[in-house]
Every structure is written in structure tokens, then in C-alpha cells.
Amino acid sequence: MRSSIRSLTQVEIIKVHTQDQLQECFSVRVEVFVEEQQVPPELELDEFDASPEASKHFLVRDEAGVPIGAARWRMYNNETAKLQRIAVLKPYRGKGIGRLIIDAMEKDIQAEGVPAVILDGQTHAEDFYKKLGYVTISPEPFEEAGIMHVRMRKEL
Questions:
Q1: Residue 94, CB half-sphere, CA atoms under 13 Å: how many?
Q2: 3, 13 contact by CB (below 8 A)
Q3: What's in the keyword line of the UniProt record (predicted)?
Q4: How far apart are CA 29 and CA 39, in angstroms?
Q5: pLDDT in tens, 33-55
Q6: How far is 42 from 30, CA to CA, in rounded Å?
Q7: CATH number for 63
Q8: What is the pTM of this model?
């Protein structure tokens, strides 16, 4: 799937099917979460990263084919999917890439007949998620990997 972005000619959003694509996702996530935000590596990669099938992983590449964004979703319970590990490299933020990757995941979730989505968003990104239709459902922020988060939900 190709989409246009301001100041980028095109980006490509890929539903990950290969180990190489998964490694590209990890490179983005390590740069954003481990290097930039100081999340311990052992907390960043988990059992849902074991293979392309362990979760539904998505990769964003720029017009030159360079990985610039990544995210994943998995089932949280029988009626709810959970978006996780949404990351966009710093130079590409504010260009609509986060919105595109979330849109792609929501379409994938809807195609599987799942009616709702939750996510644990960093508090600084809460307004971003609200603009996409998410509602904060946690009574107060909570700490995860040393970073404050809120749980949010959206009915699809």
C-alpha cells in the first residue's frame, strides 16, 4: 500500500511477512524506544516479536526504501485488538506517518471482524490518539518501562 505524505514523495506501508521485514521493524523500534527513550532492550522485544506470525507487524518505508516507522497489533481478548510499539523515526514525525500506520492496522483489524481496539499510549501522545478517535479509559496515567502511559480505546 502506497500513500503520499507532505515533504515525502511516497511511503510504503507493509504488512510484515518475512524475518527481514521484521528486522527492519526492530531497527526502527530500537532507535526510537531503546536509544532515544532509554527503554531497556529486554523490555522492548518480547514474545510477540518472536516471528512475523507472533503479532501482526507493520513496517513503513520512505520513498528510498528506508525503514522509518513500525508498529504491531495483537488480540487482547476475543473482541478487542491491542495496538503496540507504534514508532516513527524522529526526522519523520509530524508528517502524518503515525496516522497512516494506525489507519492501516485498524483496517486490518476490521477485516478480521474485531470491533474494538485499545492501546497504551505515552501521555505526550494522548492528544494525537484522541484526534484519531481514541478515548482515554484509564483512571489515571501509569508507568510502563519508565514512561507514563494512558490506556485508550476506540470502537471500530
A1: 2
A2: yes
A3: Transferase
A4: 10
A5: 999 999 998 899 999 999 999 99
A6: 11
A7: 3.40.630.30
A8: 0.91
